[in-house]
Design goal:
Number of helices: 9
Number of strands: 9
Strand order of the largest sheet: 6-7-8-3-9
Order of helices and strands: EEEHEEHEHHHHHEHEEH
Helix content: 25-40%
Radius of gyration: 17 Å
Largest sheet: 5 strands, parallel
Distance between the termini: 24 Å
Length: 233
C-alpha cells in the first residue's frame, strides 16, 4: 500500500473487555485492511471473533485504542453517528441472518437503501432502479425472484435466506462486508459455493470483506488468512 493511501480499516492498540476490572478479552496491536481486500479470520467457537467484528463495525467500543474506517475514527463518534456511518459504508451478514420475518424477499434486500441515501444512490448508478438492482443481485446469487414471487423470508429454506442476507449486505456497494459465521448452517459444498458467489459479487465494486469462520476449508478463496490467536496478542 502506498504511503499516501488511507486504509479501509485501521485498528491500533485495541483493548476490550465486557466489564470494568475484567481481564481483556481482546488485545490487538494492529490490524489493517485495504480497499477491495478479502480477509478470512478463523478461530474456535467462543474465542472472541464475533466481538472483534462488533468493534470493527462500531457496535462495541474498546477500552482503549483507535478504530478507523476510511480515515474516520469510529470510537470518537456518538452512537447515532456510528449508526449512520455503518448504514452508509458497511454491509453485515449475521450468523442468524437477522432478516425481517414479516417482509418479502425484495423488501428485506432493499432495507439498506431505505436507511442510507448513499447506498440508494450507489445502487442506482448503473441506471437501474433499486428494485431492479435488488433483483439483479438475487439472480446472480441464484435466487429467482420471479419464481419465488412475494414469499415472506420465513417461507424460504436456510440456503435461500442466506442469499437474501448476502444481497441485502451487497446492495448499494458498501465499502466493507462483515460476515460473521454465515456458513455455519450449510454443508461443505454449499459453503464453498456461497463464498464463491460473495467474493465474485464484491469484486465488481471493490468491496472489502472480513469473513469470520471456524471452517478453514473456506480460507483459500481469500487474499489473506489470519487466525484470531495471531491477532489477539
Amino acid at each position: 500500500m502506498a504511503e499516501s493511501e488511507t486504509p479501509l480499516i485501521d485498528l491500533n492498540d485495541i483493548r476490550f473487555g465486557w466489564k470494568p476490572g475484567d481481564t481483556d478479552l481482546i488485545t490487538l496491536e494492529h490490524f489493517e485492511l485495504i480497499a477491495g481486500e478479502k480477509v478470512f479470520i478463523s478461530g474456535p467457537s467462543g474465542c472472541g471473533k464475533s466481538t472483534l467484528l462488533s468493534l470493527i463495525s462500531g457496535v462495541a467500543l474498546p477500552r482503549s485504542g483507535s478504530i478507523e474506517m476510511l480515515g474516520r475514527r469510529l470510537n470518537n463518534m456518538k452512537t447515532a453517528q456510528r449508526d449512520r456511518f455503518r448504514a452508509d459504508h458497511q454491509g453485515i451478514i449475521f450468523q442468524l441472518f437477522n432478516l425481517v420475518p414479516y417482509l418479502t424477499i425484495l423488501d428485506n434486500v432493499l432495507l439498506p437503501c431505505r436507511f442510507s441515501k448513499i447506498r440508494r444512490d450507489k445502487a442506482c448508478q448503473s441506471g437501474l432502479s433499486i428494485e431492479q438492482e435488488a433483483t439483479r443481485l438475487l439472480d446472480h446469487l441464484e435466487l429467482n425472484l420471479a419464481r419465488l414471487g412475494k414469499q415472506l423470508v420465513v417461507e424460504l429454506s436456510i440456503g435461500q435466506q442466506q442469499r437474501v442476507a448476502v444481497a441485502r449486505a451487497l446492495i448499494g456497494s458498501p465499502d466493507l462486508i462483515i460476515a460473521d459465521e454465515p456458513t455455519s448452517a450449510l454443508d461443505e459444498g454449499s459453503s464453498q459455493r456461497f463464498v464463491e458467489l460473495l467474493v465474485a459479487e464484491s469484486k465488481n465494486s471493490q468491496t472489502g470483506i472480513i469473513f469470520v469462520s471456524h471452517d478453514k476449508r473456506l480460507a483459500e478463496q481469500f487474499d489473506r488468512h489470519l487466525t484470531f490467536e495471531s491477532l489477539n496478542s
